[in-house]
Amino acid sequence: MLLIVAAINFCFGPLNVALPVISNVVFKSRALGFSWMLASIALGGLIGAIVIGQFWDRVKQSVILIGSMFGMAIPFGLIPLCKDIFLCLLPLFISGISIAFTNIVLTTFIQRKTPDYMRGKVNSMVTLIALSIMPISMAVSGALIDFLGTDPLFYLCSGLMVVVIIFFAHSESIKEFSEKAR
């Protein structure tokens, strides 16, 4: 599971590095457009955190997790297709919802499955992996943007996330998420 967290977080580097470029260069909207893009992700996250409670105990966590992971991956691939900043806000909003769903399912899983005496260490390790991969991802993303541009990078990361999700969906790890929340 830690490898999945690392791989998904690695794919978020382009979002952090490329969104300012897209806002400024593609949409010519500078700081205002960039703030709308970030606000769209944040608003999606807030709504996702509220909405997940409506069906949390009726749907298997594996279904929520795989669906929300695809909900992060697919919108990444749609961002380069947006020709207007306002159209770009929708995939970012969907990503925000999906990020909240994914984080809530994973956090709940870790809290439920980890013994009390190990919980702090396990959460520390997950946080370390998630955060330590970001600077590497951002550096690689910056270099790839200079070399390829933003569009191929979003397609590449979207595709990589889809491959990781498919691998995870067919792994033994997903069986641990197959129960409904209690």
Q: Which secondary structure elements does this structure contain, and how are they paired or packed?
A:
Blueprint: H1 2-10, H2 13-26, H3 30-55, H4 61-78, H5 85-113, H6 116-148, H7 150-169
Q: What sort of overall outline do the alpha carbons produce when their principal axes are compared?
A: globular
The structural class is mainly alpha
Give the second-level CATH assignment, the architecture: Up-down Bundle
Low-confidence stretches: none
Kindly list the characteristics that best describe this protein.
182 residues; mainly alpha; Growth Hormone, Chain: A; 7 helices
Please, could you describe this protein's structure?
It contains seven helices and no strands. Helix 1 runs parallel beside helix 6 and helix 2 runs parallel beside helix 6. The protein has 182 residues and is mainly alpha-helical. Helix content is 82%, strand content 0%. The longest helix has 33 residues. It has a single domain, classed as Growth Hormone, Chain: A (Up-down Bundle).
